[in-house]
Amino acid sequence: MSRSLTTILVCLMFLSAFPQIVLMSEIPESTSTSVAVSVPLQSILKDVSLLCLGSSGNLNLSRDVGIAVGKILKERGVSYYVFGSFDVLRRTDPDPLLKVSSSPYITAQVLSLLAEGLSIAGVVPVFNATGPVNDQVVTALITRKATYPVMVEDMEKYEYLKKLGYTTTFVMDTKGNVLVGRPVRFSWAYGKEIDYEDLRREVLESSVVLLDKDTKKISVNDPWGGGVLVFSDEEWLLKIAQAVLNGKRNPTGRVP
Fold first, then answer.
1. DSSP state for residue 1 in the 8-state scheme
2. In this predicted structure, what is the pLDDT of residue 10?
3. What pLDDT, on a 0 to 100 scale, did the predictor assign at position 33?
4. 59 vs 106, 107, 220, CA distance in Å?
5. What is the largest CA-CA distance in the chain?
6. Helix (H) or strand (E) holding 220
7. Residue 254 clears pLDDT 60, i.e. is over it
8. Can you tell which superkingdom this protein's organism belongs to (predicted)?
């Protein structure tokens, strides 16, 4: 047997040693396989992004959002939801909506509450730990005992997390290979009805942020735009933002 063929066979044996999960970048209509979905939160619950939740004056709504998102995904047969970031919001972020906050503690709080809600709905939460890692976010998650499953680029990244004290029973990579543990499914589902529109309006209304009272503008999904920040351009929310801008109504959210 040639050396090149031997190398290929060894690689195939190595890969087959890892159980694999189907990792998708869109939500399927339905599925019966072990599917993990990695899509922005606002693609599931309209306009409700991670940054929106991190800017809310009521962080506990993150748990309700987790339940709602989990219910939607569970009904489509999705077993895992990959979300979040272990980094904080920075001005250099090309898409700030994918971050929670510039505060590592608020970031950890929102991630942990979302994960709790997803679990209640029967979907396995998987933190997206790829890319830069803010050590304070990891420490804050550990303090909250929120060491949920993670997705990493490779075992080297997970070894780094373990050095920080973050250990979990399930780790997957960006190709769906299970590096630690084994694929699992939660058998339960959330049986109560949810008014998704009422929930999203509540979250959006709780995240009206006064960034700069001297800048007379409404910034939609732009945490650096100044004026009043909101996370939807729907007319009812813009009217609230204008009232805050005019000093006729108090802001409800926190600066990201």
1. -
2. 33
3. 75
4. 8, 10, 20
5. 80
6. strand 218-220
7. yes
8. Bacteria
**Apex 11 CA angle, 6 and 12, nearest 5:** 100
Q: Give the residue carrying structure tokens 């809600």.
A: 117
**What residues does each domain of the chain span?**
22-181, 208-246
Report residue 208: phi and psi, to 5°. Answer: -95, 110
pLDDT digits (tens, 9 = 90+) for 229-251: 999 999 999 999 999 999 999 99
Spatial separation of the C-alpha atoms in residues 36 and 53, rounded to whole Å: 22
Q: Alpha-carbon distance 36 to 176, whole Å?
A: 8
Residues 126, 190, 123: CA angle, nearest 5 degrees? 15
Query: Quick one: which H or E segment has residue 126?
Result: strand 124-128
The pLDDT of residue 18:
59
Q: Over the stretch 13-66, which tens digit does the pLDDT of each residue have? A: 333 445 789 999 999 887 767 899 999 999 999 999 999 999 999 999 999 999
| Share of the chain residues as helix, strand and coil, in percent rounded to the nearest 5 | 40, 15, 50
Angle, alpha carbons 86-92-94 (nearest 5°): 80
Q: How far apart are CA 27 and CA 15, in angstroms?
A: 26
Q: List Cβ neighbours of 14 (8 Å cut-off, separation of 6 or more).
A: none
Mind spelling out the 3-state secondary structure of 167-193? CCCCEEECCCEEEECCCCCCCCCCCCC
Over residues 114-160, the pLDDT tens digits come to 999 999 999 999 999 999 999 999 999 999 999 999 999 999 999 99
The pTM of this model reads 0.91
- Classify domain 22-181 at the CATH superfamily level: Glycoside hydrolase, family 3, N-terminal domain (3.20.20.300)
Determine the residue type at 210: L
